[in-house]
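Re: that chain you flagged

S.,

Sorry for the slow reply, it's been a week of failed gels. I finally had a moment to sit down with the sequence you sent. For the record, here it is as I used it:
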Amino acid sequence: MAAYKSDIEIAQEAEMLPISQVAATIGLTDEMLEHYGKYKAKVDIHALADKPAKAKLVLVTAINPTPAGEGKTTTSVGLGDALNLMGKKAVLALREPSLGPVFGIKGGAAGGGYAQVVPMEDINLHFTGDFHAIGAANNLLAALLDNHIQQGNELGIDPKSITWKRAVDMNDRQLRHIVDGLGGKMQGVPREDGFDITVASEVMAAFCLATDLMDLKLRLGRMVVGYTYAGEPVCAHDLGAEGAMAALLKDAIKPNLVQTLEHTPAFVHGGPFANIAHGCNSVQATQTAMKLGDYVVTEAGFGADLGAEKFLDIKCRMAGLDPDAVVVVATVRALKYNGGVARADLNEENLDALKAGLPNLLRHVSNIQDVYGLPCVVAINAFPTDTAAELALVEEKCRELGVNVALSEVWAKGGEGGTALAEEVMRLCEQPHEFHYSYETGTDIEEALTQIATRIYHADGVDLTPGAKKQLAQLRRDGFGNLPVCVAKTQYSFTDNQHLLGAPEGFRITVRNLKVSAGAGFVVALTGDIMTMPGLPKKPAALNIDVTADGKITGLF
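Prediction finished late last night. Pasting the structure tokens below so you have them in one place:
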């Protein structure tokens, strides 16, 4: 009966260890911890500065997400638990959930079933306040920018060319496009403005890519906030903003340490979205974990075409990381959905639909192996409705690519359900490989976009709208023409059309907007209808969330 409990019920029944006890298993002393209650702490990493990062690095990614679910974080957690169960020292490096989606579409994001990080409610809600600090730093820069214009505009900033938006960590479509500064001369300069969700802020991206506080401060200073009347970029440094912004982030940048239900150490730190940002946890957390464990299991957001591509082409490039193995998570249900089966019928065996949906998985696997040159295993996140014939078909098609399939039962069994996957991951980590990016460092933006589109999405090419072409010319003039590219597109498809499932062919990618994130160190290319401020659905998850008189959270899943 325990398997039918909700995620939050399972998490709330768990017996957590004091975080100092969990920290001790990976060599962290109590003096290196800054406690946030009994079960979570920030880690002062200065004492680890000279310690080499020797762990094997395992990336967990997935097929394109569907309403049927894939279970990427659940698989990551279960894999870490399985490795520890087998006598290896494994450490997790995961992203922090964003409040907007927690109360919006999908509820919590700390794993599921018996493969969760805890305290689940804290992680999904305010946690250690990192996202609030990032939002405050973002909005401090916005306030300084508008104040500069109000106080005489010495830099000659064109209010119609401001690119910096305010941020809030909540899905609120009402704030996407606003006019502010109304009410008279002393209330500011009226202009069009808008909000991004905090996880889409460039501050979040720079925060997650920074190697330390001083590197973060340099990145903050490089952020472009708008342009002068003469068309020259204006940076946060021009406004003198980076010092105060870094002061707001000095504690947030320290990695957060928590634990799984089976007491595996887990760094949960940073959380840019993968469809509108680069979708990876912080470099500091990953590198810290690699100094403390034998294996580090990390994840990248959404499908491999988004999260894994950005992890490999952006994070690994900037941080000098070389993954040892990649896990691609899929479910039989999700593959049948890609093959055209309605959600209500996914529990029925349908080999024809599965065969039609399998190209989605196989394309991701091929990309990992053939484009990036990395060893790969497919993890099938098991459901009770999966049939032997369906599982055999997945295994057969993956074997044709030289890739093994491991059944993952971590949702129901925790680490014990992930030992087959762990064994294959350990085997792959010992295989020689030669890691390649999908495009070379220093490639022109347009060519990098073409390489991503043709090699990763398998598109026929890229088209830039007239507006995007003007922006490309401006980026080249300003010296940003050779930065890595962060593509913002739908997570549901290889294409920029969310309705084209499976492995489409004969399409092109349309880029409608190019925006430099100079502090993060990449250029964002927006495609399709992708938005940087999500909205709430008709029935938000918030309607199910409540708190009892004794402070117990309910309805968070």
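What I noticed first: The chain has a mean pLDDT of 94.

Talk soon,
D.
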